[in-house]
Amino acid sequence: MIMNTAQRDKYEARARVVKAMAHPTRLFLVDELSQSGPRCVCELTELVGADMSTVSRHLAVLKAAGLVEDEKRGQMVFYRLRVKCVMDFFDCIESVLACNARSQQALLAR
Amino acid sequence: MIMNTAQRDKYEARARVVKAMAHPTRLFLVDELSQSGPRCVCELTELVGADMSTVSRHLAVLKAAGLVEDEKRGQMVFYRLRVKCVMDFFDCIESVLACNARSQQALLAR
DNA sequence: CTCATATTTGGCAGTTTAGCCAAATGACCA
DNA sequence: TGGTCATTTGGCTAAACTGCCAAATATGAG
């Protein structure tokens, strides 16, 4: 199955979503939103411990990928997760990491 | 739950794995390997349609993240997927894309 | 040993990303 | 209207990522 244009488009679309999560801060934001529900930028900024402009940009990346949506309430903006299956993501990633850890152990044991 | 050092490490480890998949070619490689089993670099290169050195580098990225492992057979190197749950990944990503498509429709319908 | 094949690696140029500060925008209140 | 507060955006620099070519490495065949 050689990659044609349609295939290429498919994987580019998927990559845009994955890329949106490919940053520790953004993974934290997704995790936080999935566990505790909607949060405003100010709360998230405090949790992350970075400049608010930085957090705002990370949230914009997640939004552009369709992973979160925002809602303005007064002068605050609340972000919430748009898709719930992201938790499965984390489970899978953890299993990769666990597998890596086991391999590491095996190497050290020699 | 403010991000402390341990938390930060956790999300950085996860991000390394996600980042390894954050590229259309690498997503294709993972998908191909999960569907058709072990493949040598030469086969994958033909499927991708890029320089072999480029494909080799992509495979090295996947390997460094622990997503694939390689095995040398003669002068060829075969790569295979190390963790099976990656398919769930794709399902989730597709559901995000489907959600995006619906929103897009809704916007156009106005 | 010599040649051919398969793969990896060095190095370079162009593009993208990250994070901060400062400035702009938007909403609320007095 | 003027002043805050919450958030986003412009602009800049440093770092990371990509893809190709060319060269190096490794394996097998004759």
Structure, described:
Two copies of one chain form a homodimer. By secondary structure, chain A is an alpha+beta fold. Chain A has helices at 5-21, 24-36, 41-48, 52-64, 86-109, and strands at residues 39-40, 68-73, 76-81. The first copy, chain A, has a single domain, classed as Winged helix-like DNA-binding domain superfamily/Winged helix DNA-binding domain (Arc Repressor Mutant, subunit A, Orthogonal Bundle). A three-stranded antiparallel beta sheet of chain A has the order 1-3-2. In chain A, a hairpin with a 2-residue loop joins strand 2 and strand 3. In chain A, helix 2 (24-36) crosses helix 4 (52-64) and helix 3 crosses helix 4. The mean pLDDT of chain A is 94. At the A-B interface, helix 1, helix 2, helix 3 and helix 5 of A face helix 1, helix 2, helix 3 and helix 5 of B. The structure holds a DNA duplex (30 and 30 nucleotides).
